[in-house]
Amino acid sequence: MNLATFKGGTHPYDGKDLSKDLPVKVVLPKGELVYAMSQHLGAPSKPIVNKGDHILVGQRIAEASAFISAHICSSVSGTVKSIEPRLLPGGNMCQCIIVENDGKYEAVEGFGEKRDYTKLSKQEIRDIVKDAGIVGMGGAGFPNHVKITPKDDNAIDYVLVNAAECEPYLTSDYRMLLEQPERLIGGLKILLQLFDKAQGVIGIEDNKPDCIEKLTQMTANEPRIKVQPLKTKYPQGAERALIYACTGRKVHSAILPADMGCVVDNVDTVISIYNAVAENIPLIRRIVTITGDCVKTPQNFEVRTGTNYAELLEEAGGLTCEPEKIISGGPMMGKAMFDINVPVTKTSSALLFLSHDDVAAMEPTACIRCGRCVEACPSNLVPQMMIEYALRNDIDGFKRIGGMECYECGSCTFVCPAKRRLTQAFAQARAEGRKKK
Question: Which pTM value belongs to this model?
């Protein structure tokens, strides 16, 4: 088997055995729904409903306010209680639409009706994706209608499905590959309908041999689709790493993947495109992994956007011990949480409860110039130099040695024997760099 990969990377404990074997469980919300106006990259959405309004499943309740923005649709029927700031999983406050669920799940006209996507024009497909409010569900949240509308359709050579799922503990994509492969392939066919000259590639790490075998069989008679086995290594699922592994093409921070002839979407995004285009269902649900050694029954849940995280923990049986650390997302790129009374957003992926925090247990010490961070960096950077500029807040120097090419995967911090907080410093420096730009 030809295993594609990239230079660098690490091999952290993956923790996937905790949740990968149980099927996805559908969970309906119990309490109020909270729809954040900033659950995507770009400008916040603009509410188009008012307090007291009655809304339906699939109804647009907020619209994109700029080119890089996204619509938001309600996942329940009920009444708008208020529009006010609420806490989000990342720890920031955001304007939110609060909806009281009436439990009836009455939907807008046409919701769930099947249609023949092969008869749709390219523009019709793009309009449907935009109306559905679909964003990148791998974490970045980039509005998908923008991504699938490059300057030149004929310049796109590859449509890549990111099925690596390299982040430790997360298994939602794995379950979708096993449980909904037809929708994944259907979504990829819809994307290929937009790009006449493109090849579809599904990149899957080789720690998922059952998925590789199943999808290879299902695409055997699809001349425009192939399954590419990938070496299991973190961060194999990072966009640039995936593009290099599958195509040999290199992407840097100054260009978009489309400039190198590539469009990349993760598993749940592609399935959501199928749901919207083929079945008229906007983005109103997420697959979320609730896991960790403190969770009684780690599992994946299909949940409506706006649902409270605490309800998902309850569905997983609660906690067996007091967690030392709670993370929204995975341990490498997720964010530590101090309160789980936050809503599921379009970019929510996991809720992780750990009984021991290895990083907090050790105080950082001086760099010993071992070079492990350099070997691990998938962007071929020199973190031990970058940290000096970052700590001095010398953003120009940080940029000069390539600091903006960092995508904050955490590999350097993971391998550092001195336990220096490299990734956090780089994230702050890159944020300052973007402001200056």
Answer: 0.94
Nearest alpha carbon to residue 214 among 227, 205, 203? 227
Do 273 and 334 contact (CB within 8 A), yes or no? no
Cβ atoms of 301 and 26 within 8 Å: the answer is yes
Q: Rounded to whole angstroms, how far apart are CA atoms 398 and 111?
A: 50
Nearest to 373 by CA among 312, 426, 337: 426
**DSSP type of residue 18:** G
- Full DSSP string of 264-302: EEEHHHHHHHHHHHHH---S-EEEEEEESTTBSS-EEEE
Per-residue pLDDT band at 361 (split at 50, 70, 90): low
* CB half-sphere exposure, 155, CA atoms < 13 A: 11
Nearest CA among 115, 195, 184 for reference residue 148? 195
Q: What is the mean pLDDT of residues 6-25?
A: 94
pLDDT digits (tens, 9 = 90+) for 106-117: 999 999 999 999
In this structure, are residues 305 and 344 in contact, taking their beta carbons and an 8 Å threshold?
yes
Contacts 24+ apart (CB under 8 A), 113-119: 113/279, 113/280, 114/278, 114/279, 114/280, 115/277, 115/278, 115/279, 115/280, 117/186, 117/189, 117/190, 117/193, 117/277, 117/278, 118/193
d(CA 140, CA 226): 25
- Tell me, what DSSP letter sits at residue 257? G
Contacts for 270 with CB less than 8 Å, ≥ 6 apart: 161, 184, 187, 188, 191
HSE, side-chain direction, 13 A CA sphere, residue 339: 10
Q: For residue 301, is pLDDT > 60?
A: yes
Which is it for strands 158-162 and 262-266: parallel, antiparallel or unpaired? Answer: parallel
Q: What stretch of H or E contains 4?
A: none
Pairing of strands 299-304, 25-27: parallel
Residue 240 one-letter amino acid = R
Sheet strands (E) in 245-390: 262-266, 285-291, 299-304, 325-328, 335-336, 350-354
